[in-house]
From TrEMBL:
<dbReference type="InterPro" id="IPR014782">
    <property type="entry name" value="Peptidase_M1_dom"/>
</dbReference>
<feature type="compositionally biased region" description="Polar residues">
    <location>
        <begin position="1094"/>
        <end position="1104"/>
    </location>
</feature>
<feature type="domain" description="Transcription initiation factor TFIID subunit 2 Ig-like">
    <location>
        <begin position="506"/>
        <end position="625"/>
    </location>
</feature>
<dbReference type="GO" id="GO:0008270">
    <property type="term" value="F:zinc ion binding"/>
</dbReference>
<feature type="region of interest" description="Disordered">
    <location>
        <begin position="1001"/>
        <end position="1027"/>
    </location>
</feature>
<feature type="compositionally biased region" description="Basic and acidic residues">
    <location>
        <begin position="1216"/>
        <end position="1228"/>
    </location>
</feature>
<feature type="region of interest" description="Disordered">
    <location>
        <begin position="1134"/>
        <end position="1252"/>
    </location>
</feature>
<dbReference type="GO" id="GO:0008237">
    <property type="term" value="F:metallopeptidase activity"/>
</dbReference>
<dbReference type="InterPro" id="IPR057991">
    <property type="entry name" value="TPR_TAF2_C"/>
</dbReference>
<protein>
    <recommendedName>
        <fullName>Transcription initiation factor TFIID subunit 2</fullName>
    </recommendedName>
</protein>
<feature type="compositionally biased region" description="Polar residues">
    <location>
        <begin position="1142"/>
        <end position="1171"/>
    </location>
</feature>
<feature type="domain" description="Transcription initiation factor TFIID subunit 2 TPR repeats">
    <location>
        <begin position="626"/>
        <end position="988"/>
    </location>
</feature>
<dbReference type="InterPro" id="IPR037813">
    <property type="entry name" value="TAF2"/>
</dbReference>
<dbReference type="InterPro" id="IPR057345">
    <property type="entry name" value="Ig-like_TAF2"/>
</dbReference>
<comment type="similarity">
    <text>Belongs to the TAF2 family.</text>
</comment>
<feature type="compositionally biased region" description="Polar residues">
    <location>
        <begin position="1230"/>
        <end position="1252"/>
    </location>
</feature>
<feature type="compositionally biased region" description="Low complexity">
    <location>
        <begin position="1105"/>
        <end position="1116"/>
    </location>
</feature>
Length: 1252
């Protein structure tokens, strides 16, 4: 990433306005066509190139001011990360190449996938610094990321089946669906036009100006305009047959949902005006935009994604007024989406190193709304959870650095780019952003922090109203340095040491200590040490607060933690009290009576707490007697203190602990989440006291007292969930009781009978709320009663059968089966009961009560089943893989990860493989094979090139299984060169385009020639030196050569197929010593063969990847673009006869293209599947097989003439012309390669246009 203030230096122009026009969208074929127009203000008189971000899109035509055609270079090194050495399989090498590839296209570094060369006719205008318009015509087919099409596989028109499309992705993903400057640091105004079928509605950013229908009323165009400067990553879109609901309390807000969901949409969003009113009052500023849109979609990428004036949310957030559990989480998500409109879209980060600011401020504002809506206890409970999440991540995985400009981390991924960080890291990163912002509030005061935030919004509002020439749009970007200056201006305080400690460094302060009371001196002698040896530990020096609850009240003491000082003396305010009754004042001012018989008679100290307000990112291990923890649990009113006491009392299984937990469980004035945690703690204490426990099982008496019938306490009353605290306890107590075990470590029979009776007597007929979550909790509880089975097998190898099941297991199975069958007839909200049943069945399998059968779960994991059910089935399958270690199941889950239409399901499956891996590094397993290594490496390297989240997920799995080093199951090749990873600067991604290449690209008079010369080799191979020079169209060229590189990649076997003349491609290698424009290729034999798919189990040092290619349009492109548009609007064209499939192996990450297209690839994940055609992903025809021999012989003849033919570099994707035969294209084509290139199978369609 570029450092602060260097953005303008690397980008010699300013973007003032962008027009995005989507001319047609075809939901059935998952494609769209359109153009963008960028208004660019030059900042330098010698501007000759403009770099634009674009992935997946097929570029037809680039023009300047609608007058001059511009040539462009396309290069995307992220399509294949590691090309330098096919033998490398370690994560350090991958991490370095991954970050280099992302930096090579990072717009904040002045880079991009497309480099447009301005025509000479524009030089005079640019010298006068006059703005110009850059127009790019493009199309998109079957995208793998950025834009997600949901098209149910049902008969009938797509709109009748609720087919829709929406933007899906994380940071900087706009380049995946339209050409743009995909950076937050380049805001501009927008005009967006979307043309759709008459039955569909288009929702995008900005104000809806008008909707214009075509004369035949079949199509309509939505015109939007966004007058507030906004960066491209904050532009989103959704198109579908949405039902529209205007918020009755706030007419600027509009809600969109899929058909038949309007009623629950109204209930879900009926409070959203309260969030707007709260934020506007808090910030003393109106909502920055003039409208706001909620769009609820199916198969959402994440629960909520915020764009300017709109948010795309998951349909699963919708709920009726009968649902309790979902309400809290949905309101939190919607409130945070509104907060992100202020900080995230209106005020965005300047660079990735500043991302912690908008994330932290929006999370902080949302936290204040939660505090107002759900109460202070809920707010502090969430802070406690976030703190624990950050502590656990830094202790188990590694440090979290919010601002990575000054230092990197020791992770297996780079934290300097949003495209390279792990998704698990990002979750902890967001939590830490919120915690640091709250710590800043504690440091400077809530009112001053709100004033700072108000100042930011006021400056941004003023800046957004100016024109581009005023240079005030920078106020819409938030950076660490500008934040520091505003805090200094508003508060007069310097927070640089604070940021240096918590933002620029990673780690949590880890304290452990104890104390003793010195009666003679009447002081508490406190010893507090830091554990600096723990992973993720931070050496803290600064203030620390300790609170002591004494007999005469609660007192705060502030200490300065210094380098070598560990002991502190605290003078007590109270004297020891002997048998004198007096109420004891608490921190809240409340006075309570306490039974002091348990405490030390000589000490006035009741309990002691370190950092009670969570002012630090710290983990405190504190030692004090059990009676102090019991007093703290009973009488401390802070729920964080009560949580600390509950966790500590797990280690003190005494009668006093039992009484304290029971009292809390029965206390209606205690926060319900604390009572829930007390129930689980009581179960653990009861299991530890099983030998001395007296009376009925723990919590049974409490439950019957609270929920039993008055006449017969053993029978539960009819459900009445109007008291929410009792509702959550009703779900929790059976789950806690199910964990009870008797002296034989099995669930007590009376507890099992008690839980089964809850099934029997459950009656929800008079309850106004749904009981689906309660029934799911009962299934979960009964599964927790299961213990490992002890059975006698009549014959060796015989598994459990219906005859040898225990009576308890039969009862459990009957209830699970009944619930599953009932769910098929009357499904409940979000199928929560089915999810619990699947989990229970897996528990029975794991403990030997049922045969281990994975096909049952695979049927529930198929696409088309509700997402929550699929996720539960994936959990079971991953757990099955861990216990059984069957390769076919592992490859089944990997096939799902590669091919499933739901991107979140793919992500979740990989996350589960990380959390519950089939094996870990240095462990032996039947799955620890070379084939699995190659499969995962391929997923990281190229399969997930269009989804950074999946790519990083795959890297996490690879790290979990193999660590950073080369997997031990791989053989070491004889000719392998061991790289020195310390000298990383010498290993650059070969796809990075050097400056010399771009200078060649500028030289219009130069073309290229192909020189083939024999190399010195012991094998009967042919070496080809290909000079990569500028493309000059039809003009003659001069040959440009460069010195040979210091390191040449090893030879690679090539399969040569149809290479159309119309799509030139450049292959670039950059080395530390020199930038090479010559590539050496080795062809092992004269005979050309079709590449075959290599099975992972048989993979060796190099693995070929079979990829289906899309046809590409000719460079003239104007007629082809018009033809595409005619196909969209229904004009029929004649299609020539289909041409045979040909195969080509070439570099997948370095491309040079003038007037040609950008890549759209479809990876075939299955090992044994045949190559697929692009249109509809149908199996390819047999024509390729029938004509393979003829093609080989023709290609052999063509090879003899290649010295005579002029060579044009070609993009990875073909531009097929129907008037040329494959042989002609081979004669006019070129051979190119790079090391470790995958084998690419290109499929020729019957028409140069893609089918819509």
């Amino acid at each position: 990433m570029k450092k602060e203030g260097k953005t303008d230096v690397s980008r010699p122009y300013k973007l003032a306005h962008q027009t995005l026009c989507i001319r047609a969208i075809n939901l059935e074929k998952k494609s769209l066509i359109g153009y963008v127009e960028l208004v660019i203000h030059p900042l330098r008189q010698d501007l000759k190139r403009v770099k634009i971000n674009s992935k997946q899109c097929r570029i037809y035509h680039v023009s300047i001011n609608d007058q001059y055609e511009a040539k462009f270079l396309y290069n995307d090194p992220t399509l294949e990360i590691c090309q330098g050495d096919a033998k490398q399989r370690n994560l350090d090498y991958f991490q370095h190449c991954h970050f280099s590839a992302m930096s090579a296209v990072d717009p904040d570094n002045g880079n991009g996938e497309i480099t447009v060369r301005l025509p000479p006719e524009m030089y005079l205008n640019i010298a006068e610094l006059r703005p110009f318009r850059l127009c790019i015509e493009f199309s998109l087919e079957n995208p793998k990321g950025g834009l997600h099409f949901v098209v149910p596989d049902l008969p009938g028109p797509a709109h009748e089946n609720a087919a829709h499309v929406f933007t899906a992705g994380l940071n900087n993903c706009s380049r995946l669906w339209f050409p743009c400057l995909d950076t937050y640091s380049e805001p501009c105004t927008w005009k967006i036009e979307v043309t759709v079928d008459n039955e569909l509605t288009a929702v995008t950013c900005g104000d809806l100006i008008e909707v214009i229908s075509t004369p035949d009323k079949k199509r309509k165009t939505f015109h939007y305009f966004l007058s507030i400067p906004t960066s491209a990553p904050n532009i989103g879109m959704a198109v579908g047959p949405f039902e529209i609901h205007v918020d009755p309390n706030m007419h600027e807000v509009t809600h969109f949902c899929l058909p038949h969901l309007t009623e629950i949409l109204k209930h879900t969003t009926n409070y959203i005006h309260q969030a707007f009113e709260f934020y506007e009052e808090l910030l003393s500023s109106r909502y920055p935009y003039t409208c706001y849109k909620h769009v609820f979609v199916d198969e959402a990428y994440v629960e909520s994604t915020s764009y300017a004036t709109m948010s795309v949310l998951s349909t699963n957030l919708l709920h009726s007024n009968r649902i309790i559990d979902q309400t809290i989480s949905t309101r939190t998500v919607l409130a945070e989406a509104v907060a992100k409109q202020f900080f995230g879209t209106f005020i965005a980060m300047q660079t990735w190193s500043d991302a912690w600011l908008p994330m932290g401020i929006s999370g902080y504002l949302c936290g204040l709304f939660i505090k107002k809506t759900f109460g202070n206890n809920e707010y502090r409970f969430r802070i406690s959870n976030y703190l624990k999440d950050v502590q656990d991540y830094e202790n188990r995985v590694g440090g979290i650095v919010l601002d990575p400009t000054k230092r990197d981390s020791n992770h297996h991924f780079s934290i300097k780019s949003p495209h390279t960080v792990s998704p698990r890291y990002m979750e902890a990163f967001r939590s830490k952003c919120f915690l640091v912002m709250r710590m800043l509030e504690q440091r400077i005061g809530e009112q001053l922090l709100i004033q700072v935030v108000n100042k930011l919004v006021a400056l941004a509002t003023t800046g957004a109203s100016q024109k581009v020439g005023a240079n005030t749009w920078g106020n819409l970007l938030l950076s660490t340095s500008s934040f520091l200056k505003i805090i200094s201006t508003v508060t007069g305080k310097d927070i640089s040491p604070f940021l240096e400690l918590w933002v620029s460094q990673s780690g949590c302060a880890r304290f452990f200590g104890n104390f003793v009371f010195n009666r003679k001196r009447n002081v508490v002698e406190l010893e507090l040490k830091q554990d600096l040896g723990a992973k993720g530990a931070l050496k803290y020096v600064g203030p620390l607060t300790v609170t002591i609850q004494e007999l005469d009240g609660s007192f705060n003491h502030n200490f300065k933690i210094e380098e070598n000082k560990t002991k502190f003396d605290i003078t007590c305010h109270s004297k020891c009290r002997r048998n004198k009754k007096k109420k004891i004042p608490l921190m809240t001012g409340e006075e309570v009576d306490m039974d002091l018989s348990a405490m030390d008679a000589d000490s006035p100290v009741l309990w002691l707490r370190v950092d009670p307000d969570m002012n630090l990112l710290s983990h405190v291990t504190w030692e004090q007697p059990d009676y102090m923890w019991q007093y703290q649990l009973r009488y401390e009113r802070d729920i964080v203190a009560q949580r600390e006491a509950i966790r500590a009392l797990e280690n003190y299984p005494t009668a006093g602990t039992r009484r304290a937990l029971t009292d809390i469980l029965e206390d209606d004035h205690c926060f319900y989440r604390i009572r829930m945690e007390a129930a689980h703690c009581l179960a653990k204490v009861a299991n530890s006291m099983v030998g001395v426990w007296a009376g009925p099982p723990a919590m049974m008496t409490i439950f019957r007292k609270m929920f039993g019938s008055h006449s017969c306490p053993a029978i539960i009353r009819q459900n009445n969930f109007s008291n929410f605290q009792n509702y959550f306890l009703l779900k929790t107590i059976p789950n806690a009781m199910a964990l009870l075990r008797n002296i034989h470590t099995i669930c007590p029979p009376e507890v099992f009978k008690f839980i089964m009776e809850l099934f029997k007597y459950n009656d929800n007929s008079r309850n106004k709320f749904s009981d689906n979550y309660y029934r799911a909790a009962l299934v979960e509880a009964v599964s927790k009663t299961v213990t490992p089975a002890i059975t006698l097998m009549s014959t060796p190898g015989q598994g459990p059968t219906a005859d040898n099941l225990s009576a308890e297991t039969k009862q459990i199975l009957e209830e699970i089966t009944r619930y599953l069958n009932l769910e098929k007839l009357l499904p409940c909200y979000r199928h929560t009961v089915t999810v619990s049943c699947l989990s229970a069945i897996r528990t029975l399998q794991k403990f030997g009560h049922l045969p281990s059968e994975v096909e049952f779960f695979k049927s529930y994991a198929q696409h088309g089943v509700f997402r929550d059910i699929r996720l539960a089935a994936i959990d079971a399958i991953v757990d099955f893989i861990k216990t059984e270690s069957r390769p076919e199941d592992m490859y089944w889950i990997l096939n799902l990860v590669e091919t499933d239409p739901d991107l979140y399901v793919r992500h979740y499956a990989l996350q589960q493989l990380v959390l519950n891996p089939p094996f870990r590094r240095m462990e032996t397993s039947a799955l620890h094979t070379e084939g699995l290594v190659e499969r995962l490496w391929k997923m990281m390297n190229c399969t997930f090139s269009y989804d950074s989240r999946l790519r990083c997920d795959a890297a996490d799995v690879y790290f979990t299984l193999y660590g950073r080093t080369r997997p031990s199951c791989l053989p070491i090749p004889d000719n392998m060169v061991v790289l020195s990873l310390k000298d990383r600067k010498n290993k650059m991604n070969p796809a990075y385009v050097p400056d010399e290449m771009e200078e060649m690209f500028d030289d219009e008079e130069e073309d290229e020639e192909v020189g083939m010369e024999e190399g010195e080799s012991s094998q009967v191979d042919t070496e080809a030196d290909i000079d990569v020079t500028d493309i000059g169209g039809e003009e003659p060229s001069l040959k440009r050569k460069s010195p040979p590189p210091t390191e040449l990649p090893p030879p690679l076997v090539l399969s040569i197929g149809s290479v159309p003349e119309t799509c030139p491609l450049g292959i670039f290698n950059e080395d530390s010593a020199s930038q090479s424009k010559r590539l050496k290729l080795k062809m092992e034999s004269e005979t050309l063969e079709e590449p075959q798919v290599t099975e992972p189990s048989k993979a060796s040092g190099t693995q070929e990847v079979t990829v289906t290619k899309t046809p590409v349009t000719p460079s003239s492109a104007t007629s082809a673009y018009a033809a595409e548009f005619l196909k969209f609007v229904g004009v029929k064209q004649e299609h020539p006869a289909p041409e045979p499939q040909l195969s080509v192996t070439m570099d997948t990450s370095s491309r040079l293209s003038e007037g040609s297209s950008s890549p759209t690839t479809t990876a075939v994940g299955s090992e044994s599947s045949a190559p697929l055609s692009f249109a509809g992903l149908l199996p390819s025809s047999a024509s390729a097989t029938d004509m393979s021999s003829a093609t080989d012989s023709k290609a052999h003849k063509a090879k003899k003439k290649k010295k005579k033919n002029k060579h044009k570099h070609k993009h990875k994707h073909k531009h097929d012309r129907p008037d040329k035969d494959p042989l002609g294209r081979i004669r006019e084509g070129s051979f190119n390669s790079s090391e470790n290139s995958p084998s690419v199978t290109q499929t020729t369609l019957s028409s140069p246009e893609f089918e819509i």
